[in-house]
Amino acid sequence: MNSSAMKLLNLFKPKPTALNIDAYGEPSIEPDQTQALMEWLFASLMNAGYFGKSHFIWYDSDNPDPNIYLQRVPGQRVSRQIPSMSTLGTSK
């Protein structure tokens, strides 16, 4: 099937109505910081208009989880500005 046909079929595909974030690994930060980070991520995805399934991986390079495999793709670099935990706010 060509890409035009796939695009046409995707117009009729039901759109997700709820955001779902699956987290993997164990956070190495305090519970209140974890809560603030997840709230920020949820709000950011909703603000971007994304409703669907997302995956969040807690990764500690000093103590890697053998069940999580991360692969760096040669020649590709992802650069994003992510606020520090101090700008997220940890109190309600």
Task: Characterize the overall form.
Answer: flat
- What distance separates the N and C termini? 51 Å
Structural class: alpha+beta
User: Stretches where pLDDT falls below 50 for ≥5 residues?
Assistant: 78-92
Cα radius of gyration in angstroms: 17 Å
What's the total number of strands? 2
Provide the β-strand percentage band.
5-15%
Give, in order, the helices and strands.
HEHEH
Q: Largest beta sheet, briefly?
A: 2 strands, parallel
Calculate the mean pLDDT score and round it. Answer: 74
Helix proportion of residues, in percent?
25-40%
Number of helices: 3
Question: Could you give the order of strands across the largest sheet?
Answer: 1-2
Characterize this entry briefly:
With 92 residues, the protein is of the alpha+beta class.
Descriptive tags:
92 residues; flat; two-stranded parallel sheet; 3 helices; alpha+beta
